[in-house]
């Protein structure tokens, strides 16, 4: 009842839209129990607090110090006031969020939190405000107008990020194209990696965990932040996305967990049959419900223009016009229904996962099913590991596979209108498998361990996208499969491999196809490829040529299957696709690749790291790693060439590797540094370690932190 009432409040009556101030009035820190932030020499905040709320306060202060500008930008956007603050470029997002009632629902979600969690959210906001009040010059002027931040802004941003970015972003909902086709690699195949290895497969008899998300390098709401939080009953180390007050990739003394993006279909697009001024539903013509909504747009002269629009809704949800790629407004009319809008506990679940100390408590948090998407990979000191294809997934009354429900669904009958979701017990999962490990590299659940234990026929066809397995995911499995005992050094070195599985699989067939050709270009390419170790290192001289050929052979996204003699098959999941369907055509592509490589890079054998550069702030170092769809586990997606160089746009970001021994071993790296504020010395300070493929020790003991102390802040 509380949520429904608050959701019905007029938009302009909500305190979320109260006027912003140039500078906040800080809440006194003693209100949250006091504590301190110990900043180590890599810009990592170690927050020690006397209360849980105090840890949130310190974490808010820390995020404002490290990422204040993007932090305030994303909160302004998540309020659906971006156009009011910064002008027309933000108008599209504002309208999408308002049309979907995100600002009003954020109030309801904030009120639905437990008193303790509301206090935590308020404390996090108070820490941000306190930092901004103490250091106003450190925050860009155009961002200070978003202040003060309130607890509702924190839950509102989480709501926007999870439900209307990861699940139902405007681009995804209004995309004319359907899901990826049969035989193609999964969407997001350059995304995150995760491993959890059981004690029986390790040399030390200790559980191992890898957390390795991949997201854009440019500062944004997807930027990762490393932190260590300690308070009574709560002590975690790990990474999260800037703006979130909880650690999403976390470990404590007894367990750890990570996430990878999955293909949970958490929304449905219902195609409406319009008739008169309404729409057909169960044999009747129903009227649209309408509401007047508005937002403000800052004009070049600083004045604000109010833009009003009428939002229609149906029994399914808000109504939108789909583009048809030709004439605006001529596409189908749809209604959108998003799962999980009655589940406001995403931050609470992550907090409870981090506070858990054993499998029983961790699974209890999972069963609340508040996190709307992401695979969850878990490991603990007791030796348990888990892969879970997690998400808030609609339960459909009628049949059909993922493709059916990802497309436009008939909206004229209640037979297609879902009203319930699948339980935790319904979702594919692997717990303590015989093979001794679980893994995920954004692939589906079926090869989450090896030998396989899950059978697709045991789940409804709409639960998971029934597509191929990317070569990066295959490489992930190959790096762990077997019966050998994996040492700590093995674990780290396997994570760092830059070998291309596609190169290993295809170069022998390509060389055979070239044969004894006397073509000079092919002879040079053959010699180069034959002498290459298939690794994408800075000094590799064949990497650029093979990458260029692969994009001709498998398409720019490297997902095409048409050129392989044998397509991907679940029955031979980590050896297919393979072979050349048209050897002569593949050789012709190689000849073209030689010409293209010379034109693009100046030479066929240009060293990879001369072109592919690790660039952040003033840093510019030779790079390595490459596209996941080349079957490279060390992922780096490179920008288009500019002045003869390219730089990371996506890939290796936060990495942590943990062995649950005594003492624990924990190493990691934040590739682009742990700060984005202009002038921070931590914007690119870890880049040399990326270049050298090194990790740093993650300091968790206070004596180690004190020995590497850069700054102390008390509150």
UniProtKB/TrEMBL annotation:
Major enzyme class: hydrolase
The keyword Hydrolase appears for this protein: yes
GO-annotated molecular function: hydrolase activity, acting on carbon-nitrogen (but not peptide) bonds, in linear amides
Active site: 192
Keyword Methyltransferase (UniProt): no
Family assignment from sequence similarity: Belongs to the peptidase S45 family.
GO BP term, example: antibiotic biosynthetic process
UniProt superkingdom: Bacteria
EC code: 3.5.1.97
Name the UniProt record assigns to this protein: Acyl-homoserine-lactone acylase
Signal peptide (from-to): 1-22
One protein family per Pfam: Penicil_amidase
Entry keyword set: Hydrolase, Signal, Zymogen
């Amino acid at each position: 009842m509380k949520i429904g009432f608050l959701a019905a409040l007029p938009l302009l009556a909500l305190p979320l839209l109260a006027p912003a101030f140039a500078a906040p009035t800080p809440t006194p820190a003693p209100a949250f129990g006091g504590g301190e932030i110990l900043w180590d020499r890599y810009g990592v905040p170690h927050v020690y607090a006397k209360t849980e709320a105090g840890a949130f306060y310190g974490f808010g202060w820390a995020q404002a110090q490290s990422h204040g500008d993007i932090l305030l930008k994303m909160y302004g956007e998540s309020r659906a006031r971006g156009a009011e603050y910064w002008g027309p470029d933000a108008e599209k997002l504002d309208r999408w969020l308002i049309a979907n009632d995100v600002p009003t629902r954020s109030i309801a979600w904030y009120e639905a939190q437990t008193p303790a969690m509301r206090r935590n959210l308020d404390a996090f906001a108070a820490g941000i405000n306190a930092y901004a009040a103490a250091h106003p010059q450190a925050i860009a002027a155009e961002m200070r107008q978003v202040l003060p931040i309130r607890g509702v802004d924190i839950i509102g941003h989480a709501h926007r990020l999870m439900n209307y970015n990861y699940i139902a972003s405007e681009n995804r909902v209004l995309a004319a194209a359907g899901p990826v086709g049969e035989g193609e690699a999964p969407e997001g195949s350059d995304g995150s990696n995760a491993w959890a290895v059981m004690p029986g497969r390790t040399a030390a008899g200790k559980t191992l965990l890898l957390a390795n998300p991949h997201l854009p390098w440019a500062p944004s709401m997807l930027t990762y932040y490393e932190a260590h939080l300690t308070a009574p009953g709560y002590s975690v180390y790990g990474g999260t996305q800037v703006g979130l007050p909880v650690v999403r990739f976390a470990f404590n003394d007894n367990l750890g967990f990570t996430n990878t993006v999955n293909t949970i279909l958490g929304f449905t697009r219902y195609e409406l049959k319009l008739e008169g001024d309404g729409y057909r539903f169960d044999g009747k013509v129903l009227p649209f419900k309408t509401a007047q909504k508005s937002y403000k747009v800052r004009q070049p002269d600083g004045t604000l223009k109010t833009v009003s629009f009428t939002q229609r809704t149906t029994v399914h949800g808000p109504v939108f016009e789909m583009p048809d790629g030709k004439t605006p407004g001529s596409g189908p009319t749809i209604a959108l229904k998003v799962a999980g809008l009655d589940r406001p506990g995403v931050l609470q679940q992550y907090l409870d996962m981090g506070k858990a100390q054993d499998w029983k408590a961790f699974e209890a948090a999972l069963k609340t099913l508040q996190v709307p998407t992401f695979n969850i990979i878990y490991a603990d000191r007791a030796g348990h590991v888990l892969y879970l294809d997690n998400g808030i997934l609609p339960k459909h009354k009628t049949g059909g596979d993922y493709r059916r429900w990802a497309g436009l669904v008939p909206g004229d009958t209640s037979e297609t209108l879902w009203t319930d979701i699948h339980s935790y017990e319904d979702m594919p999962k692997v717990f303590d498998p015989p093979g001794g490990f679980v893994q995920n590299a954004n692939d589906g659940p079926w090869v989450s361990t090896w030998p396989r234990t899950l059978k697709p026929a045991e789940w409804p066809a709409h639960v998971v996208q029934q597509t191929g397995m990317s070569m990066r995911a295959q490489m992930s499995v190959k790096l762990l499969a077997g019966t050998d005992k994996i040492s700590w050094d093995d674990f780290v070195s396997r994570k760092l491999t830059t070998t291309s599985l596609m190169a290993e699989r295809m170069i022998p067939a390509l060389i055979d196809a070239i044969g004894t050709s006397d073509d000079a270009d092919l002879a040079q390419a053959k010699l180069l490829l034959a002498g290459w170790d298939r690794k994408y290192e800075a000094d590799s001289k064949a990497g650029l040529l093979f990458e260029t050929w692969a994009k001709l052979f498998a398409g720019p996204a490297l997902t095409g299957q048409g050129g392989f003699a044998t397509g991907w098959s679940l029955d031979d999941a980590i050896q297919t696709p393979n072979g050349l369907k048209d050897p002569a055509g593949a050789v012709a592509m190689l000849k073209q690749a030689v010409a293209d490589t010379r034109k693009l890079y100046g030479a066929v054998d240009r060293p990879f790291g001369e072109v592919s550069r690790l660039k952040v702030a003033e840093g510019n170092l030779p790079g390595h790693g490459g596209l996941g769809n080349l079957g490279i586990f060390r992922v780096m997606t490179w920008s288009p060439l500019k002045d003869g160089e390219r730089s990371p746009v996506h890939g290796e970001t936060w990495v942590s590797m943990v062995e649950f021994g005594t003492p624990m071993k924990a190493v990691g790296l934040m590739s682009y540094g742990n700060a984005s504020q202009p002038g921070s010395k931590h914007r690119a300070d870890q880049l040399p370690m990326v270049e050298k493929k090194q990790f740093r020790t993650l300091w968790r003991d206070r004596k180690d932190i004190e020995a590497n102390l850069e700054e102390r802040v008390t509150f």
